[in-house]
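User: Sequence recovery, please. Input:
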């Protein structure tokens, strides 16, 4: 198997930790900070998964959020993780400065070892508050390769200067931190998203058929699926256009769109205009347990831009061959020609050709799926990634002790 780009240390903070399970040298007091508790995105899911795993390994986690409302609160509560709102409503202004000082007082009172912000909004607020509070290890995050707004990029670049370390969730994201965001390489670490054991669990044949029938998918229908929010940047439209090309050869084809979002109605209209409405199933939001990629014969992600998508690692864990666009951190997950196929974004013809080739060649599809599962377990399993994150925390705390 081709060596993983994620497995290579990219900087002194990113050195790979041992994957052996061992009790922590001491329980760390860790403050997480995230914008909201919505259950709609990969950042929210990655954050709650990480918090749960840290608690399971004996650490203490306290979550601070800018907006407390959201479905994820129940999951934090189930893990015994306190949730507290930091009511910052703007990223700049006098009121924001006052809120940051108040947050710093709260952090100081909590006696935290680590403060870790997880998104572009809390990156602006938390590192400054952490430094004011004297938190020994202050960490910011980057989970994207492209900035949606120049103001966010500017504010985050300033905020990164307050952090002792900045975590990118793929090697290519780490490269953008160094090359585009001017973060010194010694302060950049790469810690990828991970999957838990549940992502690898397999349905039996009867269970899989029942799940597909519940979505009105015929038993023998070749099925292509995507698990992603129905948002413009995910470019489901190109997948529907590819489906229109594929139905001539595969008249029973079904395309499952798992997720919800603002593009739903526009995609329904597009499916009708392409005369593929009978081939498209809008499956809505589904829990990630059991792994929904088991519904598909081929898993697709056709985004215009990405960081390091959870959905691709989940697809590989499910043993599904992947067709994905070569954008952002996607090549850090999918090895082209080994665990799947990478295609250029926005090209329905090339996407259709890649999907069709896998549907025509079940042996090749099975090989990609099996190789992806091996890669997911070796590189992105929880027992590989979480010790690596804890190792980063411990190294930063060691440096803090040396500064005293």
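Assistant: Recovered sequence (404 residues):
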């Amino acid at each position: 198997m081709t060596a993983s780009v994620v497995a290579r240390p990219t900087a002194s903070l990113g050195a790979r930790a041992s994957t052996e399970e061992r009790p922590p040298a001491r329980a760390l007091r860790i403050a997480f900070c995230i914008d909201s508790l919505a259950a709609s995105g990969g950042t929210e899911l990655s954050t709650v998964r990480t918090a749960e795993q840290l608690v399971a390994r004996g650490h203490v986690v306290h979550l601070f959020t800018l907006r407390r409302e959201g479905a994820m609160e129940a999951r934090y509560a189930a893990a015994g993780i306190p949730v507290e709102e930091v009511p910052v409503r703007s990223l700049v202004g006098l009121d924001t400065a006052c809120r940051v000082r108040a947050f710093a007082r709260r952090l100081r009172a909590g006696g935290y070892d680590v403060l870790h912000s997880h998104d572009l909004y809390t990156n602006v607020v938390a590192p400054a508050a952490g430094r004011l509070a004297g938190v020994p290890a202050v960490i910011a995050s980057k989970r994207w390769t492209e900035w949606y707004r120049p103001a966010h990029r500017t504010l985050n670049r300033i905020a990164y200067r307050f952090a002792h370390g900045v975590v990118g969730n793929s090697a290519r994201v780490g490269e953008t931190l160094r090359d585009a965001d001017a973060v010194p390489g010694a302060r950049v670490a790469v810690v990828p998203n991970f999957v838990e054991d549940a992502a690898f669990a397999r349905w039996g044949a009867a269970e899989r058929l029942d799940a597909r029938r519940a979505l009105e998918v015929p038993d023998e229908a070749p099925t292509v699926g995507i698990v992603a929010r129905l948002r413009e940047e995910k470019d489901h439209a190109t997948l529907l256009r590819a489906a229109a090309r594929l139905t001539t050869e595969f008249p029973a084809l079904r395309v499952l769109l798992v997720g919800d979002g603002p593009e739903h109605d526009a995609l329904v209209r597009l499916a009708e205009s392409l005369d593929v409405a009978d081939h498209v199933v809008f499956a809505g939001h589904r829990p990630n347990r059991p792994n929904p990629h088991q519904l598909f014969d081929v898993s697709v992600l056709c985004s215009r831009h990405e960081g390091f998508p959870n959905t691709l690692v989940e697809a590989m864990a499910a043993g599904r061959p992947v067709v994905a666009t070569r954008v952002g951190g996607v090549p850090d997950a999918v090895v082209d020609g080994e665990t799947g196929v990478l295609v250029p974004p926005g090209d329905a013809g090339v996407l259709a050709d890649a999907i069709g080739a896998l549907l025509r060649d079940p042996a090749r599809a099975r090989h990609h799926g099996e190789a992806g599962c091996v890669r997911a377990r070796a590189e992105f399993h929880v027992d590989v990634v979480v010790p690596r994150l804890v190792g980063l925390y411990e190294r930063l705390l060691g440096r803090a002790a040396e500064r005293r």
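The first helix runs from residue 42 to 56.
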